[in-house]
Structures are given as structure tokens and as C-alpha cells.
Amino acid sequence: MPGLGTSFGRGAMTTALWDVANADVVVFMGSNAAENHPIALKWFLRAKQKGATVICVDPRYTRTASKADWWIPFRSGTDIAVLGGLINYAITHDKIHREYVVKYTNASLLVHPDFRFDDGLFSGWNEATGKYDQATWAFQTGPDGQPLADPTLEHPQCVFQHIKRIYAPYTPEKVSEISGIPVAEFIRFAETVCATGAPGKSAVFTYAMGWTQHTKGVQNIRTATILQMLLGNIGVAGGGIAALRGHANVQGATDLAVLYHDLPGYLGQPNEGHQSLQDFLAKTTTRNSYWENKPKFLISLLKAWWGEHATAANDYCFDYLPKMATSETYSHYDIFQSILDGRVKGLVVVGQNPAVGSANARKVQAALAKLDWLVVSDLFLNETSEFWKLEGMNPAEIQTEVILLPAAGPLEKEGSFTNTHRLIQWKHKMIEPMGQAHSDGWYMVQIGKRLKQLYAGSTAAKDLPIKHLVWDYDDPNNPDEFDHLKVLKEINGYDTTTGAPVTGFGALKDDGTTACGCWIYSGIYPEEGVNKADARLRAAPNRPDGWTEARADGSADYLHLGWGFAWPANRRVIYNRASADPTGRPWSKVPLVWWNEAEAKWAGVDVPDMLPVAPDQVHALGVRGDSPFIMKPWGLGGIWGPLPDGPLPVHYEPKESPTPNLLYRKQGTIPTMKIYDSEFDVWGDPQRFPYVATTYRLTEHLTSGVMTRTLPYLAEAFPRHFCEIPRELAQLKGIRNGDWVEVESARGKVRVQAMVTNRLRPLRVGGRETYVIGLPIHWGPKSGHVQGDITNTLTPQAVDVNVQIQESKVFLADLRKVEVGG
Amino acid sequence: MNLNRRAFLKLSGVSAASAAVLLFAEEREALARDLKASRITRAREVPSVCPHCSVGCGLIGYVREGQLVQVEGNPDSPINEGSLCPKGAATMQFAYDGVGRPNPLRQLTAKIRRPGSDRWEEIGIDEALDRIAQRIKETRDAGFVEKNADGLVVNRAESIAHIGSACIDNEECYLITKLMRALGVVYLEHHARI
């Protein structure tokens, strides 16, 4: 989540669900929590119960909207226009929390004098390469290397003046014209949200895939982070950005870097520009922040992986790590393109169903048929392992060898999940794996052991990373499982001399005497036999209705510090230093942390997110005691945040849009967006495909449905696929509720049943009536008790440059009634 | 507990709209009625976490004589305080379809689909793992990029990709990252990207 990482320093939800009950305003935008995170909704409704205003900004009247005080429909893909309008409103109506902005963010810093923004493009754009040169986006620094700043925020080159200028055109009228939100309604929305710009007031913004699945997904999130910092709403009770992640362990799988660009704990995957450990560290370590400790974390990781073979003399085996080509990305969609291109020949898929779950699904299926081999580990058969049975496939012509491993189910194994608010919780095995099933971890251990045997006789340099890999995870008590606690201890870190676990990442060293698999998780297994993920000490309820709420005197452990373990260092609300004023006194209505003058240390209801330095002192790492964002340079929140697509978010239209960009004439879509070159990557225009289509999930199902259409209760609860159609459009097209319709995009067609509703409304966009239609994504033709067409047949592989997530929340489609159907 | 239709709906908090489409077989209701509250008496409680969305609701599995007899929301969990959504309330069906009968869709053996074939064949787990390791080695060795055009060591196994997963445990994810990076795999991804 580079959106949050760029702004605050860590790519994770800033708050904990328990804390959102303290909010004065709750905004759901890009999240339909009632359906996709149903139990989480309770905490937002507790805020409402305590007097908060709950607003749902969504193209559809969702179940979340039904629980909110107020639903604001808008056109999918115009989030930055709306949020940019709020930024403009906050600045022009002087609603910002000035002291927070000046002291805690980089708003006062001066940007390079040559920085420009002109008609949709930032300075440094290179048309030939399709990339920005970011030189003019840098801060000005003095001879001492410290940034130049103007605490009055008046200097024309300071960040604040740039955002004031860039968002000035985002007037209520312009926002309305782009998004379809009436002017008066937008102003009321702005007034409500911006009222939290005062100390002691807070708003929480909640998002999920509704913000990420766009060609400018990261910038959607960045816009909200800027607004929230201007209002002083990050790190305070009831504030923050609640990023509701999709799957049970998507946060954990990200922390542990099952991602091409990263190493565990966000250390970054080196590329071929990094030819030595020192070179990599010099080029990638963020100075004047807690990241100055990165060498300790990386060397400890290399020690965990290559043990005694990793020495100071050989750069701790840094050479063993694969180095990415600087000109390439290796993302999800690159994988399928590279299979079609003949580069990738073998694919391992664990617990995932890309033949249904990935955008432009026909392209993904065609790619699978070109593989030499495919390994799938899953509980159930799915459209990925059985792609060769899909419509249009001729098995006789498909040379792919497919091996299916029966995976142990979630109730059949030990291990931990990291939830959406970074809380790591241990799961105990309820029953033995069914049939011959084994855990995916055991399969990985076994495959690794076999590979080590196969390479045992090799002396080739390329095989040393496998030969030397520390890979000893057999469970002495059970040959059919691996030793979970041994892996957990390695993730936590240990002393390489004594073998004893380290107590936390503060104990990690850069001299090879500690090993650590994921530094941010350090402290989870602080001593032999102590598994903090399994801690189950819940705070006592302090309300008659049985929950624990925050108290103004700081007496309630409402963040449940004894339940599970949250990274980093068991902090529940990160950046909580910002809940106190620059001198260390809480300025939020309920306190999170404070400077204890008598004992000369930080204390709090939460674990303080601060270096051990007094508010008026500067820590040796360059972070001041009055700067809360310790992972960012000088501890300052990144209102200004250079990313490959710009230092600030501005409005662009989706790749497929019914309207030109009404703010920037020259630049319609985001210039850095990536699209692919194959026969499957084709695009629709509004003449041929007049409707805006969006995709979503339902309470009863999860993504491609393999974990839900296979469970009878859920298959019965929501058996059929459908397309949600506004009543006015249905009338226009002669479609009645329950009719079969064909939805078509440039990439393909699906047949589903019509659900004609008032939950989608015609919107007035650019002076024209615009219709949005919606389709859930949970059906496939082969798996489960109930089947249906694959929605992702329609969606495009147009992806964000930062994270390569596809724009499946908005594309163009046509719709017609068909007489026959299933 | 008695998992009849009403209890399930209450437990899952689904709206009246979806109640209309939620139709249970008579047979399942009858079975559930017979079990009543007696189901969890003398059962061992095993705490776990829901495998569906990212909220992290606590589960309690009730295990009696090695048999899982019920899965409920964990009332001690400060996240869900005992409640579950429809998906969470259905987690027992990952193992059992209804009462005591294995979910018939679960894959319980390893299988192979050979090139050009239109069917699966059963194979043993060990044989499957041997085959996988062999194929990884042969594909890696054939497509390995040890140095780039400039002669710099890059150690990339570009011919192999790994996808998944956000549905498995941290310890498993760590093992995947560690093994794949040691092999030189650069095409390494999971759900977060989609």
C-alpha cells in the first residue's frame, strides 16, 4: 500500500477497529464494509451510536449506505475530484488544523523552484519514455542537509502553497460536473468532514478495493491521506485511514513479501542497479528516520536465510538474492503476459483462482494453456486447475501438465493470520487434515527438501542459494507437519550465537550476530515458548452493553493490548504520537499517548509510536521529539509524496470513460498507466459501450467463490449471478427484473440475470445523463455447488504504475436483453 | 448449538432480502434439530480465526473424540465478541457438509492431468512432490539468467512464477518467499495485487 506508505511511512491501516468508535465523522468511500467486512461494521456503528455522522460515498446504495446517516452517490472513478474538492474546501474555508500541519507534516517544506504543474502534467514528464524525472519534485535543503521550511506556510514554493494552487480549480461546481454529486450536497459533505479540522475532533476514512482497483488507485488513497493530515486526523483517537483488506491474511502475505517488489518487512527487492549490499543500502535507506536501522534488518534477514554461509566477507550472501531488471516489473498481470510471450513456462498457484479472479479472464485462461506445467494447491477444484475444461478449450491440443495438491483446510492447521489492523492472531488446529491433504507450508518444506537433494551434487554458483539455504523445519513429533513455532521464531529473530529469540527489533544487529525473517514482526516470540500471537487477554468491559470503550482519563485498555500481537511493537494505533500536541500533551478527546514529564518518557493507553526522546529534543536518527511520523524523513507526514505518477494526486479519467477530463484538456487519463500488448488487450469507446460498469462483492461470497460456492449454506444463500441495473435504464432497454441480459465489454460477454433497482441512480455528468451498472464477481463455470459466468471476462488489464492493480471498478459496457438463458 | 435456519440467519445477521433466497433442505433442518444444544457438551474448545475476510473474527471449534462437532464465534474475542457473518458461520462446512459428512467437493488426493488428456489421474502425494521438484529444477535450469547483458550477476529464474496466497498462514507465506527467492524466482505474487 504505497499510498499510505508514502504519506505516513508504513503501508498499513493506521488505526484499530476498536478505536474507530471514537470518531466524530465516519466516511466510507471505496468500502462497502457491511457486506465485505460485516463484523467490522459494528465498530463504525458504535461511533454512530455515540453521536458520529456516518457518510457513505458510493455509486451504489449498498448495505453500508443503508446503515449510514447519509448516502452520496457519485460516478465510479472520480474519487480524486471529490477528495480534491474537500482539500480545496478545507483550505479556502480555513478549516485546517494549522499547528498539526506545520509541526507534523512536510507542508512547510520548500520544493525545488523549477517545480511546475501544467494542464494535467507535472514537471519532468518525458513523453518518449512515458516516465517522470522527479528532480524538480525534491525539497530544497540548506548547507547542513536539512530541508528549508517556512512555518508561516506563505512561501510560494512551500508544499502548502502548491496544494492550495493545484486544488483551487476543484470547486464544488467542478466537482459536481465531474462526479455527479449536486453542488449543495457536496458543500454539506465538505462542511461535515472539514468540521473535524479542530483539535479534539476526528474523522476516519474507510476504504477497500473501491479505491485500489483503478489506474490511479494509489493516488486515490493519497488524496485522502493529504486531507486527513490537513485536518489533523491521523494518529489521533477516532481518526485515521481504515484500509479494510480483502482476504484473511492479505496483510500478512504482504508483510512477508509474497510480492515481486519486496522482501519481508518492506526491505525492498534489489534490482540490477544494486551490485553490493552497501550499494543497495546506500541507495534505498531513508535517511533522518527510523529506517536508518535498515542495515540491521536486512543483514538479519540474510542471516536467517543463509545462516553460517552469510558472512561479512561475502556481503552476507547478498549476491544470492535475485536482482530485478530495472526496466521490468514482474507483477500478477506481467506473469500472464510473460506466459503468452513464452518466457514463463512453469507456474505454481497456491490458494488462488486467477482464471476467475483476474481481470481480462480470457487472457489469463489462454495463458494457462501455454504453460509447460502448472501446480495448483487448493481445497477444491477450481477454474484454474481445470482451465483445460473451460468453454473454448480443446484438451487434446493443450500440452500443459497440471498437478493438483490437496490442501489442508483452514480448520486443519496451526498458524497465524494478520488481520486488517495489523493484529496477528494464532489459530489452533481443530482437526487433522482430511484425506491425504497437507498444509501448504508442509508442501513447501517438502518441495524445498527435494530441491536441496536434487542440487546437492552441483557446484554451480547459481545453485548455491539453494544448497546453502537454511531449511530445517521438520516437526519432530509429526512427519506430516512442519514445525510452526520454529518458523515463528525465525520470523521473530534470534541470536545466532545462543539461538535465543530476540525480544524485539531494537535488539537486531548489523554484524551477523542476529537472524530475523521479518523485522516488523519481531517481539511476537520474545522468549522460547512464548507466542504473543496466541495471547488472549481481553480488557474488562466497561459498558453495560458489554464492550470496552475509551475513557478520557486513559483508564481503559480499550485497544486490548493483551489480545494478539500487532506490528510494530504491539502498537494498535500507529503514529499515535500525533494524538498529543508538540509538547506531548494529548489534544484528542481521549488520550492515546503522552509525555510523562516526571519519568521523562512516553507513556500511553497504546504503545507509544515514538523514539525515546523528549518533545523538545532531537533523536540521534534525526527525528525530532515533536515529529510523529518516525518512518518518514525528519518525522514529517508526507503531504508532498513523490511517486512514479506524481508528487500529488490530481483527477484523471479512467482508461475507459464516458467523458473527457473536465479539469485538464490535454491529459485525459493518468499518463503513467500501464496497459499490455496482446490480442486480448482491447478497449471500448463510449459510442459502442455507453454505460459505466463496476464490480463488487457480496456478504455471502468471497472473490472467485471457491471458498464459498463450495459451502452449501453459502451456495444456497446466494446462488445466482446478476447485473444490477438502474430502473431508468432498464425501462429504456425494456428489461424487467429477472430477465436474462448480456453484458458486453470490448473484451467479452457474460450472461446474467437482471436485478432492476433504485440502488443505482442516473448521474448528471458533464451535462449528460450517465448510467452505472454493477456486477458481483463471485461466479465461475466449474467450481462449487452453483455456477455462473465470469465477470472478469469484461474487466480490463489497465493497471496503476505503483502497484499494478487493475481498473476493475470502472470500465465501459453495453447491455441488452436476451431471450434465452440458463 | 442448534443450527436451524432461524439461528443461522440470526447468527449471520443477514437481511430480510437475502433471507428470501436462503432456502435450506428439509433434511438438513431435521438433522440439526436432533443435535440440539447437546452437541457441544464435553467437547474440547479450540480457538481459531475466521479464514474469509481480513477482520480476524475469533472462532471456537468444538471437538469431541477427534470429531469437529461445531464452529462458533469466539465470545472472548474483542473483535467479533462472539458474532459471525454468514461466511464465518459457515466455516465448519470447509470440513463437513452438514453434519458429520465430509464436504464432497473437497479434494482429498493428489491428481495429475497429463498433456493432451481430458481427465485427471490419481497420484500419490510423494510422487506428486517428486514430480514438482523435478519440473521446477528442469525449468529453472533451462531458463536461468545468471548474468545480465552487462555481465552483472542477477540470479533470476525467469521461467518460473508463483502466485498465492493471502488465504494461508504467515508461517507458510514466509516459507514461500524464502524458497522462491532462493530459487531466484522474480515472478512472485499474491492476492494483494488484484
Give the DSSP E fraction of chain A (strand runs of 2 or more residues). Answer: 15-25%
Oligomeric state of the chains present here: heterodimer
Mean pLDDT of chain A: 97
State the shape of chain B. Answer: elongated
How many strands appear in the DSSP assignment of chain B? Answer: 8
How large is the radius of gyration of chain B? 23 Å
Low-confidence stretches of chain B: 1-23
Model regions low in confidence, pLDDT < 50 over at least 5 residues of chain A: none
Rounded to an integer in angstroms, the radius of gyration calculated over CA atoms of chain A is 26 Å
Beta fraction of the residues of chain B? 15-25%
Biggest interface between chains: A-B, 172 and 128 residues
**Helix fraction of chain B by DSSP (H/I, runs of at least 4):** 25-40%
The largest sheet of chain B is: 3 strands, antiparallel
Total number of helical segments of chain B? Answer: 6
Number of helices of chain A: 22
Keywords (chain B): 4Fe-4S, Iron, Iron-sulfur, Metal-binding, Oxidoreductase, Signal
Cofactor (chain B): [4Fe-4S] cluster
Organism (chain B): Symbiobacterium terraclitae
Protein name (chain B): Anaerobic selenocysteine-containing dehydrogenase
What does this protein structure show overall?
The complex is a heterodimer of chains A (822) and B (194). Chain A is an alpha/beta fold. In chain A, a hairpin with a 4-residue loop joins strand 13 and strand 14 (423-427). The longest helix of chain A is centred in the middle third of the chain and has 15 residues, at 440-454. The radius of gyration of chain A is 26 Å and the shape is globular. Chain B is of the alpha+beta class and 194 residues long. In chain B, 30% of the residues lie in helices and 24% in strands. Chain B has helices at residues 5-12, 16-19, 26-35, 86-89, 125-143, 170-183, and strands at residues 44-49, 58-64, 67-73, 110-113, 121-123, 144-147, 153-163, 185-189. In chain B, the strands form three sheets. A three-stranded antiparallel β-sheet of chain B has the order 1-2-3, with no helix packed on it. In chain B, strands 6-7-8 form a three-stranded mixed β-sheet. Chains A and B meet through helix 3, helix 12, helix 15, strand 10 and strand 11 of A and strand 1, strand 2, strand 3, helix 4 and strand 4 of B. Strand 10 of chain A pairs parallel with strand 7 (153-163) of chain B.
